[in-house]
Structures are given as structure tokens and as C-alpha cells.
Amino acid sequence: MIAFAQPGLLELLGASYLVAGGVVVWRLGGRLGWAGTVGAFAAWPVFLPLLTGPTERPGPHGARIHEVFAALERTLTDPAAEEVPWSADLGGLREALSRADERIGLVDRLLADAGPAPTGTLRQAREAAAGELLAVLDEVVQLRLQIGLAALHGNAASVRERLSELLARAEAIDEVTGLHG
Amino acid sequence: MESAATVADLAAVDPPARAPTPRTDLPDAPTVGRAVIGFALLGLCAALGSGDAAGAARVLPSALVVDLGALVLTGPALLVGHQYLGLEAPVPALAGVLANVFCRAGTVALGLCPALLFFAATSGLASGLLVLALLGIAAMALSDAFNGLRAAELAVGEPGRERTFRDARMQVLVASWMVLTALVGLRLGFHLAGM
Amino acid sequence: MTDLFSLVSQVLKDPLALVERHEDRAELSRIAPLLLGIAVVGCGIFGMVVGSSRGGIQLVYAAVKMPLLLWIPVLLALPAARALWMACEVEVPWSRVALAGLVAMARTAILAAAAGPVLWLFYSVSPGYHVSVLALAGSLVLVGLPGLGVVARSMPAGGKRRGLAMAGSVLVLGLCAAQTGWLLRPFVARPTAEVTFLRPVEEDVFSSLGATSRSAVGDYSTEWEAESRGLLGSDR
């Protein structure tokens, strides 16, 4: 015989959990098959990301952007680089590059869906944007060297200028991909 | 100009990690609101498991009062001491560091709510775990504040003996402020616990 | 079915790549039910093995409860883990946390199912109740560690004090897992006790461990009387 210990509050909590699951399933609509629907009832917190905002698809250079900026951030916070008083918007630069990369990803998917249809102009724009994005990323890598120099010689102004210049370039790519994408 | 190999090599070798440059801009209202809600909910979760109304009434505001109270009561002393010692970091930057530290701590508190609610529902451990959580959050926040405030001071001026001297004074000031904040927080906590 | 076997293989061989590839939300909606299914089936098999120590209806009870033993701590600890990582300046999207948790659960469940025959063999020689419980706890720790590793390694690079975030996450998960195990007991039923699906909500896992430790060294000076605790306990 099954002996349930707490009939009152426990059942209320269980029912609330399943009601929340029902709301998640309802909000997801027909996006899930039967297995997904059962899963969302039982484990709805896992499916919450599907409800918030549009689908995020990282661009083709997402991993590279992450790697380069993680390395740069570590350099800037290294004790040896402590003497470099930088105040440029590193987060803004990274965000601008990520946005541009997302749009390049979108263009890639459009090109893949288009099949043999003529896509010359879009393809050229994509190549140009991707080339510029990679060039800016290379510059960010070089910036680490410049930080080393600034730590040795105290030429911090050049680091700030370089970061500002890169931010402008990244925003320019973002604008261009925005127009074409 | 450096060769490509040199650049690649340098990019591949990661220097030892250290505290990143702190955020000194003031957080937006939703972020502050989330932190306040985090502390309030943490207290509520523990209060639900306290068993009696009098205990619940004491536990309910404890997380918010201890953390926010300690910060509000001692923050001005830090700013005044900073100006009195002739240190140079802009006051808004210091206030920004403190506000960001509070917001991060509140985010952790919010994240701990489901676990604490679980213990409140299934055991008598909620109050003890609340104390443990608050101690952990406070230790993390104070350590964050130390690094952040010091970095904010170092961000001003050019390298040299004068800045090194300022850094030393800042470290003494922030360490004293940390002790004061910890003591004020403990006193508030003991008061709420009826001790 | 081929998809499922291929997924099981990926969960075991390269779980990190699985997290990286399927972080995208559309992919998450496709893969999440499969991972949940793997976790439920794997844990169910392990639960049946644990229930075999007593046999009868306990086989079913333990098989039904075992997936919850994995799911409830993950559900409770993931928000805390994400908050701790974010406090250490590692921005983790919820989709990544959820997927890492799911992959970790699936990995643990598969390993638990694979370890089932070993545990069954052990239980077949009728070890004592306390030894059986210890064997269960040890097995869960052993199969849970590789899952925990998946969550730890799934977090993005960068940030500061990553060790602290990891230690905090493990602490919260460990506390929740221990209390969940206590709440969902019995898995290994006492030979003389009546078989029940759940026992009343009383005391907590730590006071029980303390009493057991004292009993184990022959200290019966303090009588341990289990009393109802918590909201659910007082609701009786």
C-alpha cells in the first residue's frame, strides 16, 4: 500500500509545480513534440530559456571572439599591467563584434537556404564584413602586446586610443551588416 | 612590428588571472531592485521554515537589514574617510563599486532562494542555513569591495611613488571599513536574533 | 532510435561538445526531452537495482523515486550555481546552465545504470542494512562526480575566483542532494520495517547522520527522537 506522508501541502506544491509546467507547455505552443510536452510538464525549468525572447544563434566567429576577449581581459587584470590606467569600453567593443557576428550568422543561414539562387551582392557583403571582423579581432590580439609595452614604458594613452579606434571600427561593421542583413 | 608567430604565441599564453577592473558605473534600477528582492526573498524563505510567528517576524527582514543596513550605515564613513585622507578616486566611482557589489551579492541571494525554501519546507535547518548563506555572501561581497575600491583608486593618475603611497593608504582605509562593516552587520544580525 | 543511441554515446564521450553545439534554443527544445528520457530510464534502472535489496513493491518505489533524487537537487542548485558564477563575473546564459545540468543528469543516469549490475551483485550477498545504504551513497557519489565535472567544465572561460564559484555550487548541490535523499527515503528498506513510498517529513539528514554515527561507535547516551520539521512536517 502506498503511504503518502503529507497529503495537504505536499500535494499543493506538486500541483503548483505541474500548473507551472502547464503554463510553460502552453506558452511553447506546438514547438515541442509529445515527448517534449511530457518533459516540459515534468522539468519545466529547463525549458524556460525557450520562452524568453527570440532564438539566439551565435555567429560563426563566436568562439574566437570569446577566446580573444577572455585573453585580453586576463592581460588587463594582470599585476604587471596594473600600471596601465585604461578606461575604454571593452564590453562595448565585444558587444559590437558579437552583434556583427550574429548578423553574419544570419546571412550564412539565408545563403544556405537560398540554394542556387543568385546571391552575389549578399555574399560579397558577408565576406567583407567577416574579413573586417577578423581583422579587428587580430588587432585586439595585437593590443595585448601594446599593453605589455605600456606596462614597460608607461605609454597608456596609446592603448586607450587604440581601443577607441577598434570600437569605432567594430561599430562600423555592425552598421554595415545591419544594413545588409 | 611583431611577427605573426609572436602575436599568436602571446595570445596563447594566458597570464595568471587576477581581479578584473571593477565596474564603477551605477547599476540601473532593475538590477538594484533584483538585488533587494533577492535579499528580501531569502529572508522570507527562511522565515517560512522558522516554525512560529515571532521567529518568522525576526527572520523575515534579517537578510535585507543585515546586508543593506551594514552598507548604508558604513558607506558614508568610507566616502568621508576617503576624502579626508586626500585620496583621488572620484566619489561616484566608489559609490558605483559599492552599488555593484551589493547587486552581485543580491543576485547570489536570489539564486539561493529555491534551495533555502526547500530546506524551510523539509527541515528545521532554514535559519541556520540563512546565517551560513549571509556569512558567505558577506565574505564574497567584502572581498569584491576590497578589490574594486582599490582598483578604482589605482585607475586615477599615472604610475609612480605618489600612486603607490595612495594605494597603501587606500588599502588601510578599505580594510578598516571592511572590519567596521562586518561588525555593524554582526550587530544588526544579533539584534534581529534577539541577542 | 539511432538518434537516441548516438546521443547516449555523445553524452558519454564528449558531453562538452554536446553543450556547445546545442546551446541554441531551437536545438535545446529538440534535445532536452531526449536527455530527460535518458535520465529517467537510467535512474529508473538504478532504482530497481537498489529496490532489489528488499524486493517486491520496493523495486517500483525506488525506480520511481530515483530520477527525483537526481532532478530535485539539480533544480534547486542550478539557480544558485548560475548566481555564483555570475557573481564571479562569468556570464552564463540560462540555456547553457539548463543544458549543462541536463547533460550532467543524463551522464550520471547512464553511468548509474551501467553500475547497476555491480550493486545488484553486492546486494545479492545480503549485506546489512547500513552497509547497503553506504553502498548506495558511495555509488551515487561515484557516478555523480563525472556529471558534476560536466557542469564545471561547461562554464565559459574568464571571470575571477572560479574555484569559489565551483566550490559554492558543489556545496549547494551536495546539501540539496543529501536532504533530497533523506526526504525521499527509503530507497534501501529496512528488513523489518513496513515498505512505504515515503516516510514522514521529520528532522533532517544531518541530525540523522549524527545519530547514526553515534550509534555506530556504540554511543547510545543521547536518544534520537525524530520529530516533524519544516513546513511540510508541520502540515501533518
Give a nutshell description of this structure.
Chain B has 195 residues and is mainly alpha-helical.
Report on the architecture of this protein.
The complex is a heterotrimer of chains A (about 180), B (about 200) and C (about 240). Chain A has about 180 residues and is mostly helical. Helix content of chain A is about 75%, strand content about 0%. The longest helix of chain A is centred in the C-terminal third of the chain and has 34 residues. Chain A starts with 8 loop residues before the first helix and ends with a helix. Chain B is mostly helical. The longest helix of chain B has about 30 residues. The N terminus of chain B is likely disordered. By secondary structure, chain C is mainly α. The longest helix of chain C has about 30 residues. The radius of gyration of chain C is 19 Å and the shape is globular. Chains in contact: A-B, A-C, B-C. Chains A and C meet through helix 1, helix 2, helix 3 and helix 4 of A and helix 3, helix 4, helix 5 and helix 9 of C.
Q: What is Rg of chain C?
A: 19 Å
Q: Kindly estimate the percentage of residues of chain C that lie in beta strands according to DSSP.
A: under 5%
The fraction of residues in strands of chain A falls at: under 5%
- Return Rg of chain A in Å: 24 Å
Notable traits:
heterotrimer; B: 195 residues; mainly alpha; 7 helices; elongated; C: 236 residues; globular
Task: Give the SSE layout.
The complex is a heterotrimer of chains A (181), B (195) and C (236).
Chain A lengths: L8 H20 L5 H9 L1 H4 L14 H15 L13 H25 L5 H34 L2 H25 L1
Chain B lengths: L3 H9 L16 H20 L4 H7 L2 H23 L6 H32 L3 H29 L6 H32 L3
Helix pairs in contact in B: 2-3, 2-4, 2-5, 2-6, 4-5, 4-7, 5-6, 6-7
Chain C lengths: L1 H12 L1 H7 L3 H27 L6 H30 L6 H31 L4 H26 L7 H22 L21 H12 L13 H5 L2
Helix pairs in contact in C: 1-2, 2-5, 3-4, 3-5, 4-5, 4-7, 5-6
